[in-house]
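Justification of resources, computational component.

The compute hours requested in this renewal are based largely on the per-chain cost of generating structure records like the one below. Each record pairs the submitted sequence with a full structure-token output. That output is archived, and it is also reused by downstream analysis tasks.
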Amino acid sequence: MDHFRPGDRPSRTPSPDNFTGRVRMEPLVTGVADGETAAIHVTFEPGARTHWHAHPRGQVLIVTAGCGRAQTEGQPPVVLRPGDVVRFAPGERHWHGAAPETGLSHIAIQQPEGGETADWMDPVSDADFAADPA
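The structure output for this chain reads:
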């Protein structure tokens, strides 16, 4: 059994190559081998968001606080609120983050494949970010 307490592991700021705005990540479960589960508590300041990306084995988000948005390529963005659960299928190109004027926190759960949990792509355009959610 592994037992972790808040603050046992340091928070980190993710690479600006993969995120727009201020973001903080707190590791919960650090699976690194193929098939192990990794979970991170991610906090986005207002307007902060991921770049477009996909996960080789998919991803689940559990929204814990605030208000945000998520979008799959070719679909309108959706509003995220506490208690919402979002599942992205393996290889599904998407982004997620805070609303323009409200922060967002969620738990992100994914499994690595070949040592990687995400395939990072281009930044989300201001037009995509500003699109009216469905």
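The radius of gyration is 14 Å. The longest helix spans residues 126-130.
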